[in-house]
Design a protein that fits this description.
The chain is of the alpha/beta class. Helix content is 36%, strand content 17%. It has ten helices and nine strands. The structure holds flavin mononucleotide (FMN).
């Protein structure tokens, strides 16, 4: 039975893009593959249909999104086949690694095979907007990592980072972000002069936290800070409270950037210090591993 599924959570579309890439790669290998996005109203998937289950999510404050954690915890993983983790985040800091510790425990408890955990890189949807050339560099990295992942799966090499108590501790402290998201939602504001009542935010919110009330957009307090509403608002009309200075508005055209030959994807090579230089080690490691498996 070569049937797989990517069960994923996304705020602003990066994980959905990654999920599509994973599906396409496995379909090339003869799998049939489903995609399943977790939202607050998601019904439990019947895992017994799947020989391969890919769990995929964006990292929030070095943790999984709370709806994803709750959803996966509610499944009986012993009914599924083998498990693979594909997380993704805006930077390669090893602190992001502890975000999957709970998944690793759940998979171990299920007694089903664990195939490895891979950390993909996508642009920030919060803090600041990445330049297109850098997004291209990240997408190039992701493509190398996916080749490496497929090669390791074929060879039965299980990629897992060693457990770190320090990372687990920092991650658990930063779960405070989940309560912070609720608190911050008391400060969300819509600029009535800009809002055109297109209801995109109302219709797209994964936790159904946004509604139209007396002709105005109103927020409840089930926010998970995924940024979908403010990121995708076509009029940039949504203010996100204490995080306003970190707001990024407007989707990254990932497929267009990936296909654009004028973007060289060598952005980080200009930086010896600072944020962009953090990525160089991850890029060099992927190139080295890719050469190891593919000889070029
Ligand atoms: C509330 C919040 C917290 C985040 N925390 C982290 C983090 O700890 N580490 C990181 O590398 N990226 C972090 N990011 C960036 C996202 O992981 C990144 O932009 C991701 O690609 C978004 O995926 P999505 O489009 O599927 O939601 C954070 C984003 C948000 C909205």
């Amino acid at each position: 039975m070569n049937k797989g599924i990517v069960i994923y959570s996304t705020g602003t579309g990066n994980t959905a893009y990654l999920a599509g890439k994973i599906k396409a790669r496995f379909e090339e290998k003869g799998y049939s593959f489903d995609l399943f996005e977790v939202v607050s109203s998601s019904k439990r998937v019947d895992l017994s249909q799947y020989s391969l289950i890919v769990l995929s999510y964006p990292v929030y404050a070095f943790n999984m999104p709370v709806i994803f954690e709750r959803y996966v915890s509610s499944l009986d993983l012993s009914r599924g086949g083998s498990y693979l983790i594909c997380k993704q985040s805006g930077e390669p800091l090893s602190l992001n690694d502890s975000s999957d510790y709970r998944l690793l425990r759940l998979i171990a408890k299920s007694g089903r095979p664990f195939l490895g955990a891979y950390h993909y890189l996508y642009p920030y949807n919060i803090h600041f907007r990445y330049p297109d050339d850098f997004v291209k560099e990240l997408l190039n990295y992701d493509s190398l990592l996916m080749d490496i992942m497929m090669a390791e799966l074929e060879r039965g090499t299980v990629r897992r980072r060693p457990y770190s108590l320090l990372r687990a501790f920092v991650g658990s402290v930063l779960k405070i972000q989940r309560a912070g998201a609720k608190l911050n939602s008391f400060f969300y504001k819509v600029d009535e002069g800009k809002c055109v009542r297109c209801l995109r935010c109302v219709n797209l919110c994964p936790t159904k936290n946004i509604r139209l009330e007396n002709g105005k957009i109103a927020f409840s307090h089930r926010c998970i800070m995924c940024m979908r509403c403010s990121f995708l608002c076509p009029k940039d009309a949504i203010g996100i409270g204490m995080l306003e200075k970190w707001k990024v508005n407007g989707p990254y055209p990932l497929a267009k950037i990936e296909a654009d030959p004028s973007l060289k994807g060598e952005y980080s090579s200009r930086f010896e210090k600072g944020f962009y230089s953090w990525f160089k080690k991850a890029f060099a490691e992927a190139e080295r591993e890719h050469r190891h498996y593919f000889g070029k």
